[in-house]
Specification:
The protein is of the alpha/beta class and 824 residues long. The chain has five domains: 2-120; 167-236, no CATH class; 243-390, 3-Layer(aba) Sandwich (Rossmann fold), CATH 3.40.50; 414-568, Glycogen Phosphorylase B (Rossmann fold, 3-Layer(aba) Sandwich), CATH 3.40.50; 593-823, Vaccinia Virus protein VP39 (Rossmann fold, 3-Layer(aba) Sandwich), CATH 3.40.50. The strands form three sheets. It has a seven-stranded parallel sheet with strand order 3-2-1-4-5-6-7, with helices on both faces. The protein has a seven-stranded mixed sheet with strand order 16-15-14-17-18-20-19, with helices on both faces. Helix 3 (26-64) packs antiparallel against helix 4 (67-120), helix 6 (167-173) packs across helix 7 and helix 15 (432-441) packs across helix 20. The radius of gyration is 41 Å and the shape is globular. The chain starts with a helix and ends with a strand.
Length: 824
């Protein structure tokens, strides 16, 4: 009977709604709903049990009684049992529907309550999702990092296997510190001066016996002593010298990021490089040195004389932006220079003419660049600069005592700002005004500001805010990091700002989160590793970011991310890069574009550089008619011409194809076309109709097609097996060469071949010494074997053959190469 009572649960929707509307706490409410749900389920199960009993009773009755008796019994039972059973079943079905509807209502109310709870924790859920995304990014970055290391390991194994990697190269790039340990144990052998060396040294004629008199012997002995001493000096540390140059080191070290990083670089190279290292500080006033015997403090106007005396293998110039290269009478264009730029905009304040001069020096291998962010790298590459290296700030972790770092727990959330402007023009770009308004908006957050320049006034609004502490001048940075919860970088623009502020970098490797605007290069690291918040450069965005960071602070304290971030500031690769650059310098007689043009003006000419100027120059019919005569008929250029055409034959014979479709770009008077026609059909294109007329007259009856076409800007619809182009690629700087390579790649068939000429920089720079630049009015660039291979690889080609052309009397170097490359 109890089970029958359960078949008709007496539960009404109004009663449920009324019970749910009672003012209970969220937890009591959910508990009540769960209990009610369980009661209804129990009643439903009892109803199902009764139904199963009715079914089996009916089944057994049909199976074991006689049919006749069964019919009578059924007739009686129909009235007594079946009808009541049907009614009971209908009642049961109705009760089940009511229970299901009740449970549905309970479920909806429960879900509604859970959703309300979810809404209350929405910010935490978003923060957790952000953390998951950041961890995913970290995993991806780690996978890339692992792949790069695997690739390096593979290359190293291959190089050792093929004996292409010398021990010196291995030590330089893998274990530079090992060389310093071995240095004292290695025997230094002094090379013997040859007779011709002594003769040249003493300016004497060895055939004249008068040189043996005492006066001359004394002179010879003195010169010989100098020779031995110089040789011994040069044998130490590979005989090389690296000079690091920085402005105002004495006054600003310990306060300004560039000086701090420069000193860390100096200490690193001094400790682990085989080169001798000196640090030169350019001072406005003469000051004695008391830091280190290798640090030289000199007046700015003495820089040129000092460098000439030292005669270094490499200068390392540390500055914010590239404009410093034009200071000090442009002395840095005379010497091999590695420029360490820390600005987010490396070309801040420079016009197009100045950038073109810098690109020219970079293309000739005189200037090399290291920048501190991907954005700065992108700016330089978009301007056509080659081989720019991305290296985040070099940090001596011992200087900031990472191992002994202990974080203080602040009662009030505290942000630090250590990127204060060094001049008034930097106020807005550094975000000082923006920061002031942010501090004013959130009085519950404390700010600690390090104002570096003691001569620069602090804005009145900052001094008036009660939640802002300002410290002027030098400050113990280890102490500073123990007093803050986060670093803020509120840069408003990319101008006048560091790409990767040193204070932010040091904070990250100490596990301190950073909040910055998207204009700072540090934002790249935060987006990848999730150790802070990136905001728009607005008051609202920064305030929201700060409050979010404070609320979810623990989410940004991830030891795994800290360990990965520390690898970004690893300085191991810097030593190998610096020494490679110091070792491979060949542009001794380099001239700027202005100097080159000045040499030409003396001879009544001018420098023809750039696409438009070159195109206009070759439109002249007189130049077209004399093109071959002036370049290839006189000795030794007629020999070089023959060698080049022979090398083209070798290129085609190695291609191993018949009926080749060939394109000759900038065909000129058809000098290369005559070789191409031996191996297939040739399309000759040039922007000069005068040049094409000559080609038609010479080869028009053969299998050649001429087309007026400026390959730099015009489209060629057809595809070719081989593209030849001589005296063309060499006339353009790297920004334009990249465009040409890209277009050639798209015009070649798969497995297509590119053949062009590349002048040898070792020959060209010595041959053009001094006034000789005045004989060359068309802009040219030059290569080494290494730079050809690197440039082709960077532009999706593989160097196939490098055929030397001519053998000069200068160091037995080829005059140029015929380059044969295939598509990647």
């Amino acid at each position: 009977m109890e089970s029958k009572e359960n078949h008709n649960p007496n539960i009404k929707k109004d009663d449920i709604s009324k019970s749910i509307e009672t003012k209970l706490s969220n937890e009591e409410h959910i508990l009540y709903l769960k209990n009610l749900y369980n009661i209804q389920n129990e009643k439903l199960e009892n109803s199902k049990e009764y139904s199963r009993f009715s079914f089996y009773w009916d089944l057994y009755g049909k199976k074991y009684f006689l049919k006749r008796l069964l019919r009578k019994v059924l007739r009686v039972a129909y009235g007594w049992f079946i009808i009541p059973l049907i009614e009971h079943q209908n009642s049961f079905n109705k009760s089940v529907i009511e229970v299901l509807e009740t449970n549905k209502l309970i479920s909806e109310e429960t879900n509604k309550s859970i959703r309300n709870l979810d809404d209350d924790n929405n910010e935490q859920m978003i923060a957790l999702q952000d953390l998951e995304n950041n961890l995913k990014l970290v995993s991806e970055e780690f996978a890339i990092y692992k792949q790069e290391n695997d690739d390096r390991h593979k290359q190293l194994k291959e190089a050792v296997f093929h004996q292409r990697l010398s021990m010196e190269h291995y030590q330089r790039h893998v274990v530079p510190e090992y060389r310093v340990q071995l240095e004292d144990k290695q025997t230094k052998i002094i090379s013997i001066a040859r007779e011709q060396d002594l003769n040249k040294m003493n300016e004497i004629d060895s055939s004249n016996l008068e040189f043996l008199q005492n006066d001359n012997l004394d002179k010879i002995n003195e010169n010989y002593r100098n020779y031995i001493e110089k040789t011994i000096s040069n044998s130490n540390k590979n005989g090389g010298l690296i000079v690091i140059i920085i402005k105002s080191f004495r006054q600003e070290y310990g306060m300004e990021a560039i000086r701090n990083e420069t000193y860390d670089l100096y200490q690193l190279l001094k400790k682990e490089s085989v080169y001798k290292v000196k640090l030169i500080s350019l001072e406005k006033q003469k000051t004695p040195s008391n830091y280190d015997e290798s640090i030289m403090y000199i007046m700015e106007n003495k820089l040129s004389d000092c460098i000439e005396t030292l005669s270094p293998n490499l200068l390392i110039l540390c500055a914010s932006a590239a404009h410093i290269l034009f200071e000090y009478y442009s002395v840095f264009f005379k010497y091999h220079t590695l420029v360490r730029l820390t600005a987010q905009n490396p070309f801040q304040g420079l016009n197009n003419e100045s950038i073109e001069e810098l690109r020219h020096a970079n293309d000739f291998g005189v200037h090399h660049y290291i920048v501190s962010s991907k954005r700065a790298l992108g700016i330089m590459e978009s301007e056509g600069f080659r081989d720019v290296l991305l290296q985040y700030p070099i940090i001596n972790t011992e200087r900031i005592d990472v191992k002994n770092f202990k974080k203080r727990t602040n009662e009030v959330f505290t942000l630090g700002f250590a990127s204060s402007p060094m001049s008034e023009e930097q106020y807005e770009d550094r975000g000082v005004g923006l920061l002031s308004r942010v501090i004013e908006k959130i009085p519950e957050v404390q700010f600690k500001i390090l104002w570096r320049n003691v001569n620069l006034p602090v804005p009145a609004i900052l001094t008036s805010l009660s939640n802002c502490q300002i410290y002027i001048g030098k400050y113990d940075m280890v102490k500073f990091y123990t007093e803050i919860d986060s670093i803020i970088i509120p840069y408003k623009t990319i101008d006048y700002n560091h790409a990767c502020p040193l204070s932010a970098a040091e904070a990250l490797i100490n596990g301190i989160p950073v909040i910055c605007t998207e204009n700072s290069g540090i934002s790249e690291i935060l987006n990848s590793y999730g150790m802070g918040v990136v905001c728009e450069p607005t008051i609202e965005s920064l305030v929201a970011g700060i409050l979010n960071l404070r609320t979810n602070y623990q989410l940004y304290l991830n030891e795994a991310s800290v360990n990965l971030v520390r690898t970004l500031f690893n300085s191991n690769k810097v030593i190998g890069v610096v020494e490679d650059i110091a070792e491979n310098y060949v542009s001794d007689n380099f001239v700027t574009l202005r100097q080159w043009d000045d040499y030409l003006k003396i001879k009544g000419k001018y420098l023809v550089k750039g696409h438009d100027a070159i195109k206009q120059y070759y439109q002249n019919e007189e130049i077209a008619e004399k093109y071959n005569e002036e370049r290839f008929l006189q000795f030794p250029f007629n020999y070089f011409d023959a060698f080049e055409r022979t090398s083209i034959d070798i290129a085609f014979e190695s291609y191993m194809k018949e009926h080749i479709k060939i394109l000759d770009i900038a065909c000129g008077d058809g000098r290369i076309v005559q070789e191409n026609l031996k191996y297939g059909s040739c399309t000759a294109v040039d922007s000069s109709q005068a040049m094409l007329n000559i080609v038609k007259n010479r080869y028009g009856h053969n299998n050649v097609k001429t087309q007026i076409c400026d390959f730099f800007i015009d489209s060629i619809e057809d595809k070719f097996d081989v593209i030849t182009t001589f005296r063309y690629i060499r006339h353009y700087d790297y920004a334009q060469r990249k465009s040409i390579y890209h277009k050639i790649w798209n015009t070649l068939n798969d497995e297509g071949m590119l053949v062009f000429d590349a002048p040898n920089i070792r020959y060209a720079m010595k041959e053009r010494n001094g006034d000789n630049w005045g004989y060359y009015n068309i802009y040219d660039v030059f290569w080494t074997e290494e730079t050809i291979k690197k440039e082709l690889s960077d532009n999706n080609f593989i160097l196939y053959y490098l055929i030397p052309i001519g053998l000069s009397s200068i160091d037995e170097e080829p005059v140029s190469w015929t380059v044969i490359a295939i598509k990647k």
